[in-house]
Backbone:
């Protein structure tokens, strides 16, 4: 049953507000509204098809699309929008205009649109507020069926996203000790293996790796708390993330292997240290310890500064600070990163960056790893990319000296991005170590 659409007109402000509560997570709805592969599946009234020619979701970015009737008529509308504000994952503001087939603006067709995504206990409230230049334009929009069109679009959005959640990327949930809902996918057969993602990543970033590993494992690929389709509960503590993994282990039958990448590898270490024989083996890709002068250490107030940026609503600045101080990326390259669509996703996860800072603790201070930090005696494979920075090789060497059943493996031609760029190579290294 579809939820009620609320429609309000304000002639004095020349505004039309169309609102719907949907039983879907706000971050998931945001993805459906800002990624071309999703929006083409639902945008527009029923019996119309949307084609996206450009969609650059950032201030000053352009969204060009067309709407064509499915009845084989020649009726087709071209539209061009320019984003004024983008606050991931809460707010979009853009100026939308009709255009001709050459993308020239149709005179007097401007619509100033604000889309708000408000987290509610039952899901998300979506509010589309469209302001017109004149009352006449507002009346014309109503006469053209704009209200009915957006109502259809809401229906299509709900149906599409609900089907997506129940499709090939279907996610189940398990409840952690503090009530947080942890969403995960499950695929394959064999021993249980849980994928623990790095900072600024969710389960989607490891989907190809999960597929490769599922040949020999039952792979549980989950969204860490506060990410993707998992919920969150304050206050944060590293122990709560260990409890999330413990809840997944219960689902998996009481014991599992862990594969962690980057800061996720350190969370996997912490989990193995606390849960003992409930972890069968560890596979760690490039834990980012900074134990010498191979690169500058992370500032001592790193987590505090990240939290202050998030509290002030400066998500993009938080990601930039993370990229500069935690990843060590030179400033001249960050501009290129901002131009990539992945920056928007990192912004949507920015509130969790401090979590990984707490997981890393003092291990990025430039000092040697503390002796006997992890009491782990299970088989452990520590992997690095051949082309990765020296800090990762130094970190792996230091860690293997602390773990009695650990071995190191180098992936030829790879770097820190191997989880996404070389999932087959990582899976082979795991299989070879297992055998």
Residues:
């Amino acid at each position: 049953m579809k939820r009620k659409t609320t429609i309000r007109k304000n002639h004095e402000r020349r505004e039309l507000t169309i609102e719907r509560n949907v039983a879907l997570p706000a971050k998931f709805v945001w993805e459906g509204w800002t990624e071309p592969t999703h929006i083409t599946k639902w945008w527009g009234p029923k019996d119309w098809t949307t084609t996206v020619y450009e969609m650059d979701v950032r201030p000053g970015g352009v969204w060009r699309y067309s709407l064509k009737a499915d009845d084989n008529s020649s009726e087709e509308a071209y539209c061009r929008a320019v984003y004024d504000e983008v606050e991931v994952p809460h707010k979009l503001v853009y100026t939308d205009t009709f255009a001709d087939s050459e993308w020239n603006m149709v005179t007097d067709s401007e619509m100033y649109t604000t889309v708000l995504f408000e987290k509610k206990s039952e899901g998300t409230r979506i509010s589309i507020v469209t302001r017109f230049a004149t009352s006449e334009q507002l009346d014309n929009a109503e006469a053209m069926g704009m209200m009915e069109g957006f109502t259809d679009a809401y229906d299509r959005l709900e149906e599409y996203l609900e089907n997506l959640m129940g499709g090939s990327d279907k996610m189940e949930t398990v409840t952690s000790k503090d009530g947080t809902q942890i969403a995960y996918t499950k695929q394959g057969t064999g021993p249980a293996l849980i994928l623990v993602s790095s900072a600024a990543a969710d389960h989607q970033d490891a989907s190809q790796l999960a597929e490769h590993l599922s040949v020999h494992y039952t792979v549980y690929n989950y969204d860490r708390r506060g990410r993707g389709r998992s919920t969150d509960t304050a206050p944060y503590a590293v122990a709560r993330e260990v409890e999330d993994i413990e809840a997944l282990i219960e689902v998996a039958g009481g014991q599992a292997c862990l594969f962690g990448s980057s800061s996720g590898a350190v969370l996997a270490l912490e989990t193995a240290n606390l849960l003992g024989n409930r972890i069968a083996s560890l596979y760690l890709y490039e834990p980012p310890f900074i134990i010498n002068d191979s690169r500058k250490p992370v500032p001592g107030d790193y987590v505090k500064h990240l939290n202050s940026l998030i509290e002030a609503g400066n998500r993009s600045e938080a990601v930039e600070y993370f990229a500069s101080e935690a990843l060590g990326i030179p400033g001249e390259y960050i501009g290129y990163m901002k131009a990539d669509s992945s920056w928007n996703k990192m912004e949507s996860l920015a509130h969790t960056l401090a979590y990984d800072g707490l997981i890393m603790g003092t291990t990025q201070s430039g000092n040697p790893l503390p002796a006997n930090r992890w009491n782990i005696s299970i088989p452990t494979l520590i992997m690095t990319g051949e082309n990765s920075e020296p800090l990762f090789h130094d970190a792996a060497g230091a860690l293997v000296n602390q773990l009695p059943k650990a071995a190191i493996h180098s992936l030829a031609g790879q770097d820190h991005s191997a989880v996404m760029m070389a999932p087959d190579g990582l899976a082979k290294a795991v299989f070879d170590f297992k055998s």
